[in-house]
Design goal:
4 copies of one chain form a homotetramer.
Chain A lengths: L6 E6 L3 H12 L4 E7 L3 H9 L5 E3 L2 H6 L5 E4 L6 H10 L4 E3 L7 H14 L4 E3 L7 H12 L5 E9 L9 H20 L3 E7 L15 E7 L4 E7 L7 E8 L2 E5 L6 E4 L2 E5 L4 H21 L8 H20 L3 E2 L11
Parallel strand pairs in A: 1-2, 1-4, 2-3, 4-5, 5-6, 7-10
Antiparallel strand pairs in A: 7-11, 8-9, 9-10, 11-12, 12-13, 13-14
Helix pairs in contact in A: 4-5
Keywords (chains A, B, C, D): NAD, Oxidoreductase
EC number (chains A, B, C, D): 1.1.1.18
Function (chains A, B, C, D): Involved in the oxidation of myo-inositol (MI) to 2-keto-myo-inositol (2KMI or 2-inosose).
């Protein structure tokens, strides 16, 4: 570990996803820094490294992993490059966050599985990020609580505004429905035992050669039935919804608002119980905004004038309350510094 | 600045709010660390400092501000202690994040205003954290866009499940409605010119001596009318809602879901346009969870087994799709390491 | 009463409102018929009467009320004509449904009040139709149940897309807010004791001479505080909302969906408990549509072909269920009669 | 036709459904009356007839249909009795509203189909009442408008709180999913070509011998894919939902509020454009309530006191508006007649 326990991360791959992770670790994440970036394109690696203090560029994953200030590896290279990078990380026993897919097929994934077993302990987290989405986390907690009884069915909608050029039927499964496959396994704690894919007549909006939408039915070893509408040219936006149907109620997420349950004769959701729950993220953003501005040598956000104005309005408010009548607020003229 | 530009922060006051900011800066915020904590209660300061690497405890704000590794100050002490701490920070020209209220009354706030003007530049951000709430930010952006025309009225609901012991009528204004006062000024970009406070018969649930709920009407120099229901013993939870009524539509936040607008014959909200917008925070949480677990020497989240299972299900899925029939998934037995 | 107890109604006034009531009684209402219509404009009265079987036209309310087949009176003439029509009905002791306002001012209303007392029994229902709106009825029932405790405040929004030509500030009160005034009295079972009217700077969209929107505060003899946003040029549609704030929860109607309550840590609504509750109105509409079509000599709606197709699909469904496989549906070719 | 064109209806079957139709025609429907009731149970028929003015009891459908004042027939007897009743009606060329199912199987339905063709014109409306539900009607109108493009999929949820004793797997299809089968045919204007039924592990709450829930997939000759969750022991209530997925958007009904669409980057619904649209049903209920009370010799609803109070509050309101200050309302003491 580097000084003060900050985690030095080597980011493998500096394409769209990798570059975004570099930004995230540098600007959002607490307790980590990007110590190395790796890309077969040496120029691109150098450019990304240049923007990060204390970051070295490499073209070989193994070389980056050998660096003294690299404590952990984030793999964001194309899928076919994952296996060798994972094996290299295993050799140095480094913790890994590996973007999905783990590897492009089951055979190669099995090789990684065996390698990690030879290592004797788990080292890899795979990038199924829906498990970290606040709504999915709430749904998982509700299912685990047993409040609604056993889950029987899971209805999913997965919609994209439009598919990128070259998107194929197989990518519908491998790149899109793979998320529902993982979500199913995680939410239900069950393995998937069979898959059926049904297709309506494709939308006229679907690109030539892509049968879009499709409807996928998954069966699990726990006897649950899972259906997935996958529609990657729906036109209106990106929408991911899931509804768990349980023995004593249903719960639905992804409607652009909080989880809604049907149970005991009522539909609805929970109300936050205190300001921490309601405004926790606002506090985080507030302090982060202050730190960021301060590091840039700037002052942003509400200032002393706002504090003074609030005090003056409060004084008028308390007077209005006490005297039971409309009370005017008195403010000095706004000084130049605050205009 | 300390090494690699990390901001060293002195946190003044280690009560509930201060301790929470210490935790936030240490575990959530990127680019800052707690270099010093200050409390008149030396024991409490020491205890808090002990939990943070490289953090020194002080009993005097000025002493902390004099430390070499202190770059900025976060004031979270009780309101009456703010003025002297602010003036001390001005002497060293340090950036300040000052919890609300700036100071307890308009006269003292005015003294701080004058001091900062003598300093010649702005150094203080005041802790009106609603300005950083995602929903308020969206509402502000919508109002600023001019899409709905000029705001004419702002309806606010501010509800707490119950008030803490000793809560008074004046605190309804100074501690609660002060948020709507700041929100009004910020959302509308107007100063408040008059206040009226109305009271229905108090709720039987309200504690002796507190007239709860109350209804506050604010007028602004831009001619807007603002009403605030303040109800601190509503019983059912914490709820903060705002509806802006504009010339060509209204927009409402705080119903436990996204902002809803009324305009052009339709009610509703926006749909995310891509996965970044929808799952950005999930990515942040995923990477933070990985960094935190790794720093603790643990592995959590989806692992290689999950990556393998997803690959196997995808293969079955593509086969099902191609062959047009139900296809069984083949998985090896789950190895001991992943049980 | 006429044969089979059908109520013979004289409709006074055949303007927009009166003509609509004539249509309603003739085509929607069970157990009544329009026996007479009255209008100072003899031509208009004759035209309306011509469209209704057994209906006579008059120019004098008293003349219509004297007719043998008139059992009851519906007054839909302009407000200033109400008093004399009401007094004429009292003379014949006829039941009256009087469109709002009862009369245009308190002094004339008082005269009617005294006249009905001299009559010795109540004969008049006034047309405050919100008391018959399904959502208001639900809200009233919830308040009356005492579940949420005593109502403390009532927030109202009353919005029209645009105001008709010639609309004045006084009409904002007399024609629009009068609905909230009645709703307040009815929902709370309390009399209104004081009124305050506040005005923001008018919308630029408001017509010359109309200060729109306005904000009305009502106080009641039960200590409740009621606020009404009246905005008759909001542009986006017609919207009537009410939120009752009670000691143990709130309930809100008018958002374009069912009543939503906040109570006991949850927001939400009730779920219908059986198909009667959910589809009662569909049954009513179905049978009314059949009666109407039959009286016109037509056949509409689902027919024998639909019944046959449903039977065939059901048979395939039960076979699919029993045999556990996809089953094709067999239909004869669609006969010419059903194309 | 009877006097004034009122339709004389013979109701065949006076069980739950039949008795409810007798009540509906007598009290809700405009322009019809129950002229005859028929039941194999002579006693039951007599009892029902006794409650309706001018209604005769029969035990034979044909006898009732021969009566001079019978203009039309409503068949609500058990399914196996429908065929002979329909054929009897055809002999007299009477219009029929036949409760679902038309007949219990496709073969008998086909015989009815052929008989109606021999008659040479359509005479029968079948009781698929969902086609008259306001939300389904809106969804149908939206699909027919072509605004969202061609429908590709239709997701349905059909949930009952609990199933009646003796409910079987076959009844899941014949009594429950039959509604979605008809809705599919009607909404899409397409015939169903194949059915598949899938089953998760049944809920522990399901009664012995019933596999509940089940998941039904329908295919249509227009290439649409339709899925139906049928869950008749969901515990929490009765819920019928449908979401049409079209080429340019989706539309969903049955969430306990108005239809919600996803299209062009926004979710939401329409706002009523005038008070007629918003309060039409309130007007209908108001006048029906007045007619019903008047026929009973009663006065209900708002009365003269309410009219007077509204006038007095309006006067105070206009004064408050004009003079710009809080104005007290003056009311006389409430007279005994109105207490």
């Amino acid at each position: 570990m580097t000084q003060r326990g900050t985690l030095g991360v080597a980011v493998i791959g500096t394409g769209r996803m990798g570059a975004d992770h570099v930004r995230r670790i540098s600007e959002v994440i607490s307790g980590a820094r990007v110590a190395a970036v790796v890309d077969v394109d040496a120029e691109r690696a150098k450019n990304v490294a240049a923007g990060v203090e204390g970051c070295t560029a490499y073209t070989e994953p193994a070389a980056a992993m050998a660096a003294a200030d690299v404590d952990a590896v984030l793999i964001a290279s194309p899928g076919p490059a994952h296996e060798s990078a994972l094996l290299a990380a295993f050799e140095r026993d480094l913790p890994v966050l590996c973007e999905k897919p783990l590897t492009p097929d089951a055979a190669s994934a099995l090789r990684v599985l065996e390698a990690e077993q030879r290592l004797g302990h788990r080292r890899v987290q795979v990038g199924f990020m829906r498990r970290y989405d606040a709504e999915y986390v709430k749904l998982k907690a509700l299912l685990d609580s047993g409040q609604l009884g056993r889950p029987l069915m899971l209805h999913n909608r997965h919609r994209n505004a439009s598919s990128p050029p070259g998107f194929t039927d197989a990518m519908l499964i491998n790149d899109s429905v793979v998320h529902e496959m993982d979500v199913t396994r995680w939410l239900l704690g069950q393995e998937i035992t069979a898959v059926t894919v049904l297709r309506p007549t494709p939308s006229d909006v679907a690109p030539e050669g892509l049968a879009d939408p499709q409807f996928v039915v998954l069966e699990t070893d726990g006897g649950a039935l899972v259906d997935v509408e996958i529609f990657v040219n729906c036109g209106f936006g990106y929408q991911v919804q899931a509804e768990a149907v349980c023995e004593r109620g249903t719960a639905r997420i992804g409607d652009g608002h909080a989880m809604v349950t049907n149970a005991a004769g009522r539909w609805g959701g929970t109300i936050a119980q205190d300001f921490v729950e309601r405004f926790e993220e606002a506090y985080d953003r507030e302090v982060q905004a202050w730190v960021d501005a301060t590091r840039r040598g700037e002052v942003t956000g509400p200032g002393v004038w706002d504090g003074y104005a609030a005090a003056a309005v409060c004084e008028a408010g308390v007077r209005a309350q006490t005297e039971g009548r409309r009370t005017e607020v008195e403010l000095i003229e706004r000084p130049a510094l605050y205009r």
